[in-house]
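Something for you to look into today, if you have time. What I am after is a single protein written out in full by you. I want to see for myself how the chain folds. Could you add the entry underneath, on a fresh line?
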Amino acid sequence: MNKREIFLNYVKNGGKKFCSPQVGAGAGFDTKVAGKEWISETTLEDTINAVEKFDIVPLINVGCPFEACTKNSKWIEKTVEKSEKRIVKDYYLKTPKGTLVRKTIEEKKRGASMVKYAVTCEGDLDAFEYYLDELLETDFTQVTRETADVVSKINGRGALSVQWPVQPYELLCYPNTVDTVLLANDCPERFVKLMDKIVKLDDLLMKAVAKGGADFIFLGAPGSEMLSPSYYENYIIPYSQIVTSMAHSYGLMVYSHICSPIEPFLSMGFYNRMGIDLFETLSPPPVGNVESLKDALEKLNPDICTRGNVGLDVLLNGNPCEIRDKVFEIMEASKGRKHIPAASDYLFYDIPEENVRAMCDAVKEFGE
């Protein structure tokens, strides 16, 4: 089997463990390996070259270019500042219902952060819905072509996850998490109407990426420091069940990454109800808030494959011996479960290469 087949088979059936640190997704490790400093300059080829440098079985995560497919309303990008330390960009979307504006700041070796979100109040929802309606009338053949091109370039050297804000609750990530909560609370009927439209958009995009040969779609969800259990019960769980069922009907699997605190949602059984195939991460303090990996696995449906648990703090500041001990601890705690040893989050720029190699070597040394 090639590495793509190995990854997919393990998620479905388990077997011999392998190492699969999370590389890419704008975190910067692949940028550094490529000898670059601006994460926005990182290419798919850079990510492939980075994972090929280590003894790992990767899941490569790429964005879905759905925003580039509309015929009329287009996001206009404008660089408003560029220096040796940072790049500031504004993005404008003009519609007959108003103009949406977002702003990012990228710092060298640190990546970009959203400092102004497109939807900040109820008054922005008319323009957002107008754009969403246009997306629902869009031909996403380009998405299929670009997905197929990525699959061709990876060429079996890993599995492919295509990412966009699939979670309807997130409203395409146009508002920040706090404003999303306020919008759901202040205008619940409008909020549900928008979520229902995003489900239809998800359906179109899943068809497109599945036809292009993708293996996974990415399903996010806010952690417990950002959301209350009632929002999971009212919005996250029921809509996750809808979109994961759609994904499975197209032959796609569902990958969920939550790098913030997940208790008490884990103990309440929320993740077992969402239709997830691959979940990360079940991290104890200081990275997450579960009691231990062993305890967390006992609360999670064994049909769900998990990944992660070598803390980024350890990978950043530890030595190879400490990393080896941590990997052995993870391997021992996850015996008999579908768990892929990896990091607690995507590898950022400053993680030393020798520590990544130590993690990979330790998994191989432990065996199973």
